[in-house]
Amino acid sequence: MRHLFRKPDESCILMREGSSQVDMYDVVIVGSGPAGMGAAFELAQNKPGLSVLIVDQENFSTGGMRNDCKMNFTYPIGFPEEYWSREQADLYLEKVTAFLKPEILPKSNIGIYQKRADRLGCSLLEIRQSHLGTDGGLKLIKKLLAELNSLGITLALGETMLSVNEVAQVIGTDKRDIGYRALLIAPGRKGFHFLQMMLQSLGVPFMDNIVDIGIRVETRIDHYPIVRDYYDPKFYFPEKVRTFCTNSGDAHVVKERYTTARGDIWYSVNGHAYSAESHEANGLVNFAILKTVRFTAPLASGQAFAENLGLQAALMGGNKPLMQRVGDFRMGSRSKETSFNTDLYDFPPSLKDCCPGDISLAMPAKILRSIWKAMKNLDTIVPGVLHPSTIMYYPEIKLYANKPQYLDDSFRVTERVFLAGDGAGTSRGITAAWASGIRCAQGIARLLQQG
Question: Domains along the chain?
Answer without folding.
Answer: 10-106+129-206+402-450 (3.50.50.60), 210-398 (no CATH)
